[in-house]
């Protein structure tokens, strides 16, 4: 008598079921349009507006208020890698984040000026034909990506009339922030949140393929030593452990550099909920390791 366990099904039946199981799993994922709607819903209460910034290489999505105080630096929050992979081996077809944590951080900043900048190919449709999968896999930190982000930040700075920018990067966005910061002379501070600051150390730690077509932010550490830096990590974060920030810091210790590890935090929890308090501590100089 045949039992009802999966292993006892005829092989042909099991193989026929696999596509159906995959289809059921994938159907639960929000579509790119639904992910864009999530971002719009988050920004609606603060009356933030979406804009598309053109660069020499990509178009980038930004969200921000209509006006800011020009006498204060502009905090630019750079998104993480987003929904880059379906699983460990298969890239997604669209890297738009399911839950845009950097956007949540920008909206949670309790004072000062904040804007949000997505990564290339996030929140965009067929209007940007350069969006090949490599730009959210092994070329996610490529020179083209960094150049586009640098140009977009300059446009935001001009739009808002800001004199200086603060760069805040979440996860892979921290790598982009560091690489962009190494190019600019108007960055008043660099803040990484669960940030991938040494992509080589990160791939080696996880025993995954190196990002062959990307720049490593740790290689630019020496050009950032004059910029005050805060690197914030979760003690429970298995994606970006504290050792990644420590590896970056060893490359070229900055004149003002602080690595802070938060108990109970992981790669996602509890950054957005606690960001107003963390920000006030950053502003007052009371944030301590």
The 3D shape can be described as globular
- Report the CATH architecture: 3-Layer(aba) Sandwich
* Beta-strand share of residues: 15-25%
In DSSP terms (H or I, runs of 4 or more residues), the helix count works out at 8
Largest sheet: 8 strands, mixed
Q: In sequence order, what are the helices and strands, one letter per element?
A: HHEEEHEHEHEHEHEH
The strand order across the widest sheet is 1-2-4-3-5-6-7-8
> What is the total domain count?
1
| Count of strand segments | 8
Percent range for helical residues? 25-40%
CATH topology: Rossmann fold
Main CATH class: Alpha Beta
| Arithmetic mean pLDDT | 90
Low-confidence stretches: 1-25
Describe this structure in words.
By secondary structure, the protein is of the alpha/beta class. The chain has a single domain (31-284), classed as Rossmann fold. It has eight helices and eight strands; from the N terminus they run H-H-E-E-E-H-E-H-E-H-E-H-E-H-E-H. The protein has helices at 11-27, 32-43, 101-108, 143-160, 172-181, 199-206, 242-251, 271-284, and strands spanning 49-54, 59-64, 74-78, 113-117, 165-170, 187-193, 229-234, 257-262. The chain has an eight-stranded mixed β-sheet, with helices on both faces. Helix 3 packs across helix 8 (271-284). The protein is globular, with a radius of gyration of 20 Å. The N and C termini lie far apart (64 Å). Residues 1-25 have low confidence and may be disordered. This is Alpha/beta hydrolase. InterPro entries: AB_hydrolase_fold (IPR029058). Keywords: Signal. Residues 1-35 form the signal peptide.
């Amino acid at each position: 008598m045949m039992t009802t366990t999966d292993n006892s099904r005829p092989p042909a039946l099991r193989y026929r079921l696999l596509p159906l199981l995959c289809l059921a799993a994938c159907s639960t994922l929000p579509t790119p349009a639904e992910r864009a709607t999530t971002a719009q819903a988050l920004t609606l209460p603060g009356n933030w507006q979406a804009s598309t910034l053109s660069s020499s290489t990509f178009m980038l999505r930004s969200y921000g208020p209509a006006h800011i105080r020009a006498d204060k630096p502009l905090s630019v929050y750079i998104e993480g890698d987003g929904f880059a992979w379906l699983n460990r081996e298969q890239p997604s077809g669209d890297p738009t984040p399911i839950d845009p944590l950097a956007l949540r951080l920008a909206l949670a900043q309790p004072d000062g000026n904040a804007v949000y900048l997505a990564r290339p190919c996030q929140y965009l449709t067929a209007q940007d034909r350069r969006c090949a999968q490599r730009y959210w896999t092994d070329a996610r930190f490529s020179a083209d990506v960094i150049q586009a982000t640098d140009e977009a930040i300059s446009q935001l700075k001009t739009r808002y009339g800001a004199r200086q920018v603060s760069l805040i990067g979440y996860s892979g966005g921290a790598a982009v922030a560091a690489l962009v910061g190494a190019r600019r002379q108007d960055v008043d501070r660099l803040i990484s949140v669960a940030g991938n600051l040494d992509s080589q150390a990160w791939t080696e730690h996880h025993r995954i393929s190196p990002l062959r077509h990307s720049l490593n932010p740790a290689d630019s550490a020496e050009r950032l030593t004059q910029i005050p830096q805060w690197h914030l990590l979760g003690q429970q974060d298995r994606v970006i452990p504290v050792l990644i920030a420590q590896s970056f810091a060893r490359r070229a210790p900055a004149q003002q550099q602080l690595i802070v590890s938060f108990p109970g935090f992981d790669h996602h929890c509890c950054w957005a909920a606690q960001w107003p308090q963390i920000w006030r501590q950053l502003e007052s100089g009371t944030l301590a390791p």
